[in-house]
Predict the 3D structure of the following.
Amino acid sequence: MSDERLDALEAALGYRFRDRTLLIHALTHSSRKAELSYSNERLEFLGDAILGCAVSEDLYRRFPDYAEGELTRIKSTVVSRASLARAARELDLGACLIVAKGVAAPCEDEQPTHNGLPASLISNAFEAVIGALYLDGGWEAAREFVLRQLREPIERARKLAGIHNFKSTLQERVQRDMGATPEYRVVSEEGPDHVKSFSVVTVIRGREYGAGEGRTKKTAEQQAAKLTLEMLGVEGENAAADPAENG
């Protein structure tokens, strides 16, 4: 592969490799392994793990009120073959892959990419590039690349998952418009442990706003946040969503 093509790819990746051999290996399909004695399979294995960790950490930090099931649904969509293939196409990764003749035909159950390569092939290469970035530049280089390329897919996946977290929406709006952070005060706690009921009120700058009730504190907080948004004149997308489903 020419230096010019590698230069162009590195520009698209937003990273210049110290060891370009890693990048070349990441671009080499297993169909050339017998001839070249290497392929991107091992890097793909490593990149898959790095990808999963980077996305999981980002979701965990960005959406502190999302339940485990909600985070899992978003992650599953973001790291899917289709999602990674789209990210690879944006980088024009398929034009840089080193494959044997006859590999360009996609399987019957998937659509080819714009250059005729199977989506599975370029999505695997995308993961291999992540592995190469990790080995060459460490965790931060790989993490920054993953989040830069997948930030929009994460937002799309969150919306498609039908998740609307009222606490997160309220916090973003209040911090932006009022320079404060909402707090949640437990007003009452009734009943035995197995049927306990909580009443919670939202407090912003010492003033009480919406109150909510639920069988858990999180459910009550979501209800309180929803009512507070309505009091502030903010009707979020999916405002009818059941707050009990949002942890």
Notes: The longest strand covers residues 183-190. The beta strands are 183-190, 197-204, 207-214. The chain has a mean pLDDT of 86. The radius of gyration is 23 Å.
